[in-house]
UniProtKB/TrEMBL annotation:
The lineage of its organism: Eukaryota, Viridiplantae, Streptophyta, Embryophyta, Tracheophyta. Keywords: Leucine-rich repeat, Membrane, Repeat, Signal, Transmembrane, Transmembrane helix. InterPro entries: Leu-rich_rpt, Leu-rich_rpt_4, Leu-rich_rpt_typical-subtyp, LRR-RLK, LRR_dom_sf, LRR_N_plant-typ, LRR_R13L4/SHOC2-like. Residues 226-353 form the Disease resistance R13L4/SHOC-2-like LRR domain. It comes from the Eukaryota. Residues 32-74 form the Leucine-rich repeat-containing N-terminal plant-type domain. SUPFAM superfamilies: RNI-like. This is Leucine-rich repeat-containing N-terminal plant-type domain-containing protein. Residues 1-27 form the signal peptide. Coiled coil: none annotated.
Length: 496
């Protein structure tokens, strides 16, 4: 009997040891086939023309052996935590197989050809931090409760798809989210109210949709915001006070909307802001002098609004400014001489205004690449001479448009010094005299328009030296003689 009892004790010990071992393995390596099954089911729903997922084998015990392309696992738990299939040329629909990947932290299916809608549970992973479905052909409406379990979510991008309907209101409950990109879709309605209170938010891009409504008060809650783009929507009303409290803002783009009213004064507090884009709205009034306090500005685009009166002299304090676009407004008088201090300016567009006076000498600064001053015909404005280029060597200038003004005088031979020039438009002015032979020195020039002036003489034989010419417009002048046969050397010429 004692021997039998001892045997029972040994068997019990062996059983518990075996059970404990299995339980331990299960705890470390629980049901890995869930990941394999989920990925294989996902793969079955899509087309993989380049065979990117050929390493996914349903006979494998798990997906964490290192051979499954695009799959990353937690080395401790041996569970799939990242699925990164960016740019794999995959097509088809996102099936329910991914819902088995319960430990997923990052899901990126960006830049493929996936179609159809998405499941209401696609973002309901407890540990999900990043979801990126951008650059596909996904469509349909997003479920309103899509982000109801988003406590861990840090970044979400559904950009460049064809989603429609309203943005999910649950997006406003993602208190930890840092980046939201829903750009280039067909979302409509207003921005969910909760989004304007996401204090962790750094980047938000809702551009290129059909969003409407107003930007509410209380945006000063976005203390960590670095970049905001609402461009190309139908957002209306005034720009509210509060953005000035978002002191970390570096980029603000509200272009192509229906915004109206004046610029809020607290924008001057954005000392780090390098991009301010307000083009294509109905903003009005004067551009305030405090604009010169935004010392970090590199791009200032106020084009196609209803701003009026004189361009403020304080713009000359913006020494980091590289691009200034004031076109399509009602600015009067001349550009301030203080702008000669904008030593980094490379692109200037003040076309389609009501400016008058002589062209300032600083406009041919050494670093300027684009100068557009077209259509500035002030009522009763005097004809002014085209600025002499005799002592100017602007090697960087690529685009020069002085069309539809009241410039007079001659085109001097100094124009041949603009060696980088690609586009020259002096049409619809009162220029006289001959076309200078020095145009032949503009080897990169592809378009030249001198139409609608009072030019005389003949077309110079040397013009064929501008061998890159594609368009040459000389109509409505007083030119005589024949078109020189040398023009045949301009092999790309399509318009004459």
């Amino acid at each position: 009997m004692p021997a039998v009892s001892n045997m029972r004790v040994v068997l019990c010990c062996c059983f518990f040891f075996f059970f404990f071992s299995v339980a331990s393995v299960a705890a470390v390596n629980p049901s890995l086939n869930d990941d394999v099954l989920g990925l294989i089911v996902f793969k079955a729903d899509i087309q993989d023309p380049k065979g990117k997922l050929s390493s996914w084998n349903e006979d494998d015990d798990n997906a964490c052996g290192g051979g499954w392309v695009g799959v990353r696992c937690n080395p401790r738990s041996n569970r799939v935590v990242e699925l990164n299939l960016d740019g794999f040329s995959l097509s088809g629909k996102i099936g329910r197989g991914l819902l088995r990947l319960q430990f997923l932290r990052k899901l990126s299916l960006a830049n493929n050809n996936l179609t159809g809608g998405i499941s209401a549970n696609i973002a309901h992973f407890e540990n999900l931090r990043v979801i990126d479905l951008s650059g596909n052909n996904l469509s349909g409406e997003l479920p309103d409760d899509l982000f109801r379990q988003c406590g861990s979510l840090r970044a979400v991008s559904f950009a460049r798809n064809s989603f429609s309907g309203k943005l999910p209101s649950s997006l406003g409950s993602c208190s930890a989210v840092v980046s939201i990109d829903m750009s280039s879709n067909q979302f409509s309605g207003s921005v969910p109210a909760g989004v304007w209170s996401l204090s962790a938010l750094r980047y938000i891009d809702l551009s290129g949709n059909l969003l409407e409504g107003e930007i509410p008060k209380g945006v000063d809650a976005l203390k960590n915001l670095r970049s905001i783009s609402l461009s190309n929507n139908q957002i209306s009303g005034k720009i509210p006070d509060g953005f000035g409290s978002c002191s970390l803002l570096r980029s603000v783009d509200f272009g192509e909307n229906l915004l109206s009213g004046n610029l809020p004064e607290d924008l001057k507090e954005l000392k780090l802001c390098s991009y301010l884009g307000l083009r294509g709205n109905a903003l009005s009034g004067e551009v305030p002098e405090w604009i010169g306090e935004m010392r970090s500005l590199e791009t200032l685009d106020l084009s196609r609004n209803r701003f009026s009166r004189q361009v403020p002299s304080s713009i000359g304090a913006l020494q980091s400014l590289k691009m200034l676009n004031l076109s399509g407004n009602g600015f009067t008088d001349n550009l301030p001489e203080s702008m000669s201090n904008c030593t980094n300016l490379s692109a200037l567009d003040v076309s389609h205004n009501s400016m008058s006076g002589a062209l300032p000498s600083w406009i041919f600064k050494p670093d300027l690449e684009k100068v557009l001053v077209s259509e500035n015909k002030a009522r009763g404005g005097l004809k002014t001479p085209l600025f002499s280029l005799d002592e100017v060597a602007v090697q960087s200038l690529q685009v020069l448009d002085f069309s539809d003004n009241t410039f007079s005088g001659e085109i001097t031979s100094a124009i041949g010094g603009l060696s980088s020039l690609q586009f020259l438009n002096l049409s619809q002015n009162s220029l006289r005299g001959p076309i200078p032979a020095a145009i032949s020195e503009l080897k990169m020039l592809s378009i030249i328009d001198l139409s609608g002036n009072h030019l005389n003489g003949s077309i110079p034989w040397e013009i064929a030296g501008a061998m890159s010419l594609k368009e040459l417009r000389l109509e409505k002048n007083f030119l005589v003689g024949k078109i020189p046969t040398s023009i045949e050397n301009c092999s790309s010429l399509s318009t004459l």
